Amino acid sequence: MKAFDLSLYLVLDPELCAGIGMVETARLAVAGGATMVQLRDKQAGTAAMITTGRALKQALDGTGALLIVNDDVEAAIAIGADGLHIGQEDMDARMARGMIGPKMILGLSVETETLAAAVDPDLVDYTGVGPVFATPTKADHKQPIGFDGLARLIKTSPVPSVAIGGLKAEHVAQVFAAGAKGLAVVSAIAGTPDPEAATRRIAAEIRKVRP
Fold first, then answer.
1. Does the annotation list 161 as a binding residue?
2. Which cofactors, by name (predicted)?
3. pTM, rounded to two decimals
């Protein structure tokens, strides 16, 4: 498995990125300090995911930022992505690990302490914990857990966690205080007038508080 840095994790949204596209949004965000980029497009088929993913991989080449693919195992493998992220309803973690092999990073969304406690560290490399707040970028999200809930889930998770759900630069200190290794953001970067500047603001806050 590759080493990874969860501190500033951009989740791409095709609608928010429509102005300049997901590849350019990712390129600017990485220039601003994003450490990981997740390709998430629930409306795209595998072929479209592969096309976008290969363009993203090329754009991120040499930057040190890692590319994660949401849900689509076939696309992740075809792209040669650094990792795959799955939700509880997507597929079983053991099945996913069996398909992607031992070297690819595997992330898993968890929304409750029960789910966090059930994570197998032999299969899963990190958990995406949330939503901290309600967010319009994921209409089917579970009940928001707040920072107290975030801290409880992170304490229960046997692997490093990244917080997600309506997070912005002003939440960085609370995210790290809860024990997260980073925050995953969507609208705080994607769809902003200047994704690079927006990312730099978040990265600056992370530098102030990161252990």
1. no
2. Mg(2+)
3. 0.95
